[in-house]
Amino acid sequence: MIFRISRPACFSSLAALACIAWSSSVLAMPVEVHNRIATPVIADKKIALTLDACSGKFDAELLDFLIRKRIPATIFVTKKWLDKNPAGVTIIKAHLDLFDVEDHGEKHIPAIIGPGRKVYGLVGEPDIASLQREVTEGAKAITSAMGTTPQWYRGASAKYDPQAMDEIKRMGYKIAGFSLNADQGATLRKQAIINQFKRLQAGDVIIAHMNKPASDSAEGLAVALAETLKQGFVFVRLDQVELQRVDMQKLQTARRSLALTN
Fold this sequence. Notes:
- The protein is an alpha/beta fold.
- It is about 40% helix and about 20% strand.
- Strands 3, 4, 5, 11, 12 and 13 form a six-stranded parallel β-sheet that branches. A two-stranded antiparallel sheet has the order 1-9.
- Strand 6 (about 120) and strand 7 form a beta hairpin.
- The longest helix is centred in the middle third of the chain and has 19 residues, at about 130-145.
């Protein structure tokens, strides 16, 4: 005779709730992190330029412009990019007084957890261990190539789910968001990039790209950044400031209101 012992109803309910909570955490929609420089002194007009080097080539024209104009920038590089661009590495390493090099991962995989999950067509991480490797191996590659230790992390696509964000912070990295998208992944044309800078405000963190020399990014950024210097803005690197999270919708509303009054 076989005796069947059923689990108490309370146990089943608790297990179900725990499962639902875990699923909700893991499968939460990825979000962009939006940051500005914390408590900026408006009179100082501080802004931060960040450049992503995801994979592909390096934009020598853009780097040359930044060096000539002495514009500091924080460059987020992947191990993938470092391995393919020794000439770019040499240029950056020779100007670490201008450039702060930070972690963009090993293989440019988004910081979203779960088998088959994608953002912008990029497949995320199957599990936490894979995310840890992406972050750690990217950091090791920077230390090996540049002799510096990254403190900031920006994932591929700049989108994160809550579980990934918690793990990146637990590993000791600060997550680098942005408040002004200058080139939309190096897809905007020259005039559109220039137009993006018309919304620039003190405290903004700009995101752009330096891995697609065939795009309009270098040309558009050169014009926009030169005008920004004329307006008295002061560029800083992320290793020189603290960032604070902002509500992008409220920020966009404030930008529109400012545009109407000018």
